[in-house]
Amino acid sequence: MQTRAIAVVRGLLQVIETGNLDEVKHHLSGDFILGLGTRHPLNKYQFLHLLAAVKRSVSDLAFSILALHEDHQSAQSDRVHAEVQAISLSRLIRQGI
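Below the sequence we write its predicted structure tokens.
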């Protein structure tokens, strides 16, 4: 069963793939934190800055969702942990994958 929080994360990843950063900004809450995969946790604006740089370098960036689950142990029931793999579609095609 897909909850509203997980649906929001899936929608966010789809918007990120379009490269429309203004739309991405509207999908992120003010307390958004990217906590894994970076040296220090990134807030909403740091994440948008990083995303803009990545999209300039990898214009065909796409995401493969490996795992999504809600954090029910937290008092915040809208917290979702996502394990996502970023891929370049053209690199996959060139490699024959």
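The beta strands are 33-34, 42-43, 61-70, 80-88.
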